[in-house]
Design brief:
heterodimer; A: about 325 residues; mainly alpha; ABC transporter involved in vitamin B12 uptake, BtuC; two-stranded antiparallel sheet; 4 strands; about 5% strand; B: about 375 residues; alpha/beta; Rossmann fold; 2 domains; eight-stranded mixed beta sheet; six-stranded mixed beta sheet; 10 helices; 14 strands
């Protein structure tokens, strides 16, 4: 029992992260420098925000494939609200966030109320939201935002990239909510056995709707940060980001069947992937090779973890 | 909620329908045009001040061995294989340049930015890039300049102040002149022609069409412009649109201009299947591999594009000249090995030259 506790998935993962950091540091002098670490943090914030809320989604036994499209849609709407509608930028950002959250809410309604499997529902909205984004943008970019807006994506607060503070705040809040509150326990209950949760009188449907809305909100925030970081708006933003986020969550030990997963695991998964991408690139490995290696690490980690958890694995 | 999204979708498709209804429109944009002289005399280059960036505290790299990374829009496609081939050729010829190509596996702005960021951290002497988005790539290129790295673009530009020089493969008016000249050579000065483009809002295509209009008005006023149709860069739609044009205008139609690398081969296919080879000329922008069957069967005589091997070759030479300090703001030409002297235009761009016309004689030499 104690041995099993020591060798829980997160511990194995943390060990892997340390090994990876040491190994990559030996390959390049530029890897473990403060500048590079902060810069990598900046680059992984968007995926990070989405992955943290995706952990909740996956713990309930669901999945949200539409986050990349919500990111793109929010980015486009911020641009259109600001430039074409003429709203002040803070209001435009607020409206974009509301729209993104609403997109997530729609996912929640389709999944919880109409009992459409999450995979199919969000596969549909993945296409729907991206289509709306492309229709609204008419293949035109919005550029030339005021200077203050770039502080969010390109600036620093107390020497740390601005968005990294936000990521930290969201991570801590999410870890507390999932680990120590009734909310968190309801989330696990829904994922472990939805029928039992329903008969125990838990608000299963509202839990799901709230979580998918939060997922939409996280994607919308990531969209605003993305626009600020790259200083332009395009309808193809965030394509494929859902897979990066899901990879991090699954690498972090969440079960795709629900009921298992932690925020700390997801964060370790994120760090491992980012460290591999960056470190291998600095060591001179080309990007196609890096993708192959990340796939291999994902499978190896899960196999290694299953070795110690044969019984609890579903 | 679903109903709301559906009605929104319906609204969007209706507005798209309204745009399509304006078929009389040529599909150009409303930006000012600058047609070239009919006989090809180069336009007097308007002196524009250098508007590129400058690397901060760049070390003296004159003649020194330099490490260069080439970051195209994506890797694994024929076009960018050809540009990296040109870069490798120039590097081998120069002897003091180590060039590697590394790009995203999809044309994704974020992957490309991250990749360049990593190379800036890792430390290189020079970066060659083809931007997936001119504005999105600017912050990371500025970071590279601030780190003292020489930055030169090719194929797709960034904001001017985010790089030092940009090798421009072809100006819009140059492409427009080549297209119309090829059409006139095949179908005559009084031909009626139609255009198959991608969509009316695609920026490059709209620009080329506007320039073609201006050049036609100035040099071949007897040409008749029948119609411009949209084909969304879709194979089947392009074929159908070209087919419709052939049936709709019959003998009146003497030429079809394909504005995309999808539309041109599809139009050639439609003309071949309609048995109109020789009576309907197909001229267009396309890559050689897609056009080889039609060029070899004599159905298509000229395919307009630039030579991507030369483009990469020129970019590598420009980067070397920049690192050596032989190309400086204010210069009007730069020497680029076997391509000779290339001229500086628009402040900080280097023009590769007139577009390249692939014909039956030379198309077999290209593989992309």
């Amino acid at each position: 029992m104690t041995l099993r506790k020591v060798f829980r998935h997160e511990t194995i993962l943390a060990l892997l992260v340390v090994i990876a950091l040491i190994a990559l540091d030996r390959q390049s002098d530029n890897f473990l420098t403060l500048d590079n670490i902060l810069n990598q943090g900046r680059l992984m914030t968007e995926v990070g925000l989405i992955a943290i809320i995706m952990t909740f989604v996956i713990v309930t036994g669901g999945i949200d494939l539409s986050v990349g499209s919500i990111l793109g849609l929010t980015a486009i709407l911020i641009g259109v609200f600001w430039e074409n509608v003429g709203l002040p930028l803070p209001v435009a950002i607020g409206a974009g966030l509301v729209a993104g959250t609403f997109a997530g809410f729609v996912n929640g309604i389709i999944i919880a109320r109409f009992r459409v499997p999450a995979l199919i529902a969000t596969l549909g909205t993945l296409a729907l939201y991206r289509g709306i984004a492309e229709g609204v943008s008419q293949a035109r970019s919005v550029r030339g935002y005021p200077e203050w807006f770039y502080v969010l994506g390109q600036g620093e607060v107390l020497g740390v990239p601005t968005q990294l503070w936000l990521l930290g705040l969201v991570a801590i809040t999410a870890a507390i909510v999932l680990g120590y509150t009734t909310w968190g326990r309801t989330t696990y209950a829904v994922g472990s056995n939805e029928v039992a949760a329903r008969f125990s009188g838990l608000p299963v449907d509202w839990t799901k709707i709230a979580i998918y809305s939060a997922s939409g909100f996280a994607a919308a925030c990531a969209g605003a940060i993305f626009v600020s970081r790259v200083s332009t708006t395009r309808s193809d933003m965030g394509t494929g980001i859902e897979l990066d986020a899901i990879t991090a969550v699954v690498l972090g030990g969440a079960s795709i069947f629900g009921g298992r997963g932690t925020i700390i695991g997801t964060l370790l998964g994120l760090i491992l992937i980012q460290a591999l991408k960056n470190g291998l690139s600095l060591a001179g490995v080309k990007s196609d090779g890096t993708v192959v290696l990340i796939g291999a690490v994902l499978i190896l980690t899960i196999l290694l973890s299953n070795l110690f958890h044969r019984d609890t694995n579903r | 909620m679903l109903r709301k999204s559906l009605s929104l979708l319906a609204l969007l498709s209706m507005s798209a329908g309204a745009v399509q209804a304006q078929s009389a429109w040529t599909g150009g944009d409303d930006l000012p045009t600058n047609p070239l002289a009919c006989d090809g005399t180069p336009a007097a280059a308007a002196a524009v001040d250098y508007d590129g960036g400058t690397p901060t505290d760049a070390p003296d790299r004159n003649g020194a061995e330099i490490t260069v990374v080439d970051v195209p829009k994506l890797i694994g496609i024929g076009y960018f294989d050809a540009t990296s081939k040109g870069i490798a050729e120039a590097a081998a010829e120069l002897g003091n340049m180590n060039a590697t190509t590394d790009g995203p596996v999809e044309a994704n702005i974020d992957d490309q930015i991250t990749l360049i960021d990593n190379y800036v951290t890792g430390g290189v002497d020079g970066i060659l890039f083809a931007a997936n988005d001119p504005v999105a790539i600017a912050p990371v290129l500025k970071k590279a300049l601030a780190a003292g790295i020489n930055v030169v673009g090719y194929d797709a530009n960034s904001e001017p102040d985010a790089r030092q020089w940009f090798v421009n493969q072809a100006e819009f008016n140059g492409i427009a002149k080549s297209m119309i000249d090829s059409l006139v050579a095949e179908a005559g000065e009084d031909a009626s022609f139609a255009i198959v483009t991608s969509t009316f809002t695609t920026p490059n295509q709209a620009r080329w069409i506007s320039e073609m209009e201006a050049y036609t008005a100035a040099c071949y006023p007897d040409l008749t412009w029948l119609e411009t149709v949209e084909a969304q860069e879709d194979n089947i739609l392009s074929f159908n649109q070209a087919n419709t044009l052939i049936n709709k205008y019959g003998d009146e139609l003497k030429g079809i201009l394909g504005m995309t690398s999808v539309a041109t081969p599809a139009a050639a296919d439609a003309v071949t299947q309609a048995g109109q080879c020789g009576s309907v000329a197909v001229v267009g922008l396309a890559t050689p591999n897609a056009m080889k069957p039609y060029v070899e069967s004599d159905c298509v005589k000229s395919v307009v594009l630039w030579n991507p091997v030369d483009l990469g070759y020129a970019a590598a030479h420009v980067l070397r000249a920049t690192a050596d300090g032989t190309l400086n703001p204010g210069d009007t030409t730069v020497s680029a090995g076997r391509l000779g002297e290339l001229s500086v235009i628009n402040g900080s761009e280097i023009l590769l030259g007139a577009p390249y016309v692939f014909t039956k004689e030379n198309i077999a030499d290209f593989d992309f």
